[in-house]
Design goal:
The protein is of the alpha+beta class and 511 residues long. The protein has 5 helices and 32 strands. The protein starts with a strand and ends with a strand.
Length: 511
Amino acid sequence: MQNITTNTENVTAIFDTEMEVKSRYIQLKNIFSEKNLYYLFAEPIGDGVKWKTEIDGDIIGFSELSEDEKEVAKIVLFKKVSALKKVLGESAKDRKFIKQILEVPSEENIHIIKKDGVFNVVLTFWGHRKNVFQSKKNIVSNMIGNGNCLTIKLQDGSDAIPNFPIKVIYHNEENILTTDSSGEIVIDDILKNSMVEIEFDTNSHDSYKKISISENIKMEEDSMKKEFILEKKAPPPPPPPTPIDNNDNFWKRNWKWLILLLLLLLGLGLFLWKFYVPTPTVVVPIQPPVIIEQNINFTLIDKDTRQPIKGVKIISSGSDNKLTNEQGKATLRLIQSEGGKRVQFLMNGYQSKEITIESGIDIDKTIYLKPLKVKIEGEAGDPRINISWETKDDIDIHVFDPCKKKSIYHGNKTAVCNGKIGKLDVDNLGKGTGIRQENITWDSGGSRGEYIVIINKYSNNSHSPTKVTIRTINNGQTTKKIVYLKGQKQKNFIPFEKKDSQYTFKFTHEN
C-alpha cells in the first residue's frame, strides 16, 4: 500500500460531499471486485488531499512518459474501462455512472505504476473536475475513445468463406478468431489509432490456391472494413481411360468369376454336410446349486472423521434391509449360492457404495463412506462456527462471546464485545432443498476469551434424528464434528443441559 499526492487547487467533486466520494469508493470496490478492477481507482484518505493504492511499483505521471510508453498506458487504460463497462451494462444510468467516476481534473491525475516492465494505471481525484470556467471535461474518455470497430471479410468470388481461422494481434495480445457464416470477423473494442496485425494462410485448405497474408492496419476511423478474396484451385483433370488389351487370355479376363464360383461350391458343400452328417448329442448332468448361509458383521465409518455412521441402509437381494446402530454396526444374513452377492450402502450426505461378498464363512467387514463435498456458505473469519444439515428441521446456532451479555442467534444477529463484532450472516429455517447451513463469524477477529456454542433443534419437522455437521475455525485451526439431534421442538434451553435436542461445546480464542 503506497500514497499518491497530487494537486488539489480549484478541484471540486461531482458528487455532493467528500464523504460521498469515500462511500462511492466502497461501492466501486464491491461492484468491481472481480479481477481487482477497482485497482483503477485510488482510495481517498484523510481530507481527500492524499490518495493511496494497493499496487506496488514506481509511480510515474502520464505526462512524464515517452510517446511509446503513453501508447502502452492508453491500451492498459482502455482495457480497464472496457472491462468496467462489461460488468455494468449499457443502460443510461450505467453510462452516466461510468462517465462520473472516470471524470478527472487533468492528465496530472492519471498515474502509471510500473514494476518489472508491467504498466498499471491509477486515477486520483476520480469523480472530480476543475472548478474553473471552461475547464476540460471527459479527459479519460477523450484519451481512449469508445472503441473502434474492425470488420474482416473473406470471400471466394461472391461466396462468403465461413469457419476460416485468422490470427489477429491488437493491444499486444494474440487471438485466433474464426469467420462466421457470412465470412466475417467483427472486433468492436479496439483503441483508436492503435495498430492491428492480421495473419493467415491457406496451407491447411486444399481447395484454395496457396497464399500467405500478413497486414498491419492503423485504426484511424471509428469503423473500418478489410476484405480478402481467396482463389479456388482448378478441379483436377479426369483420369485417362484404361486401355483394353484384346490379347488377354481367358483366365485373365474371367478370374473374378472363377473365384466366385469356387466360393459358391464351397458354401454348398458346407450346407449339405451340416444337414446330412449327424452330430452326436452330449448330455451334461445338471448339478443342484450349493446354498450357503453366512452372517456379515458390517461397521460403517466416516472416511474423513473416522467416526461411526448411524442410520446407513444396507441392501442386498434376498435379504432383509438393515440400518446401522449408534456404533455404526449392523449384521446382514446372506443366503446365496456360489459366485458371491452384491451389497449396497446408502446414506444421505455420503456417496453410495456397492461391494461383492463372496460366499464363505461369517466375517467382520469395515466399510468407509466418503462424505459428499459441501460448499461452505457465509463469510470467513477467526473464530467461525458453521453448521450444515439435510433435513427440513430448523437447526439454530447460539454463541455467547466472552462478554456473555447476549447470545448471537436468529433473533439477535450481531453482538459487540470489546470492539469486536460477531454476526450471524447465514440463517436457515429448514426450508428449500439440499444442504442447509447457518454461519456465525468474526471477520476482523474475535475478542480474547471463552466462547460457548449451543446447537439447538428448534423444530422437528422430519420426526427423526437430524445429522448435523459442525465446522469450527479457531486460532487458525479447523475442526469438524458430527452430532445427531433428537427430540421435539425446543424454544427454551440452558447451556450444557443434557437434552437430546441440543449440543453444547466451548473453546478459548487467543486474540
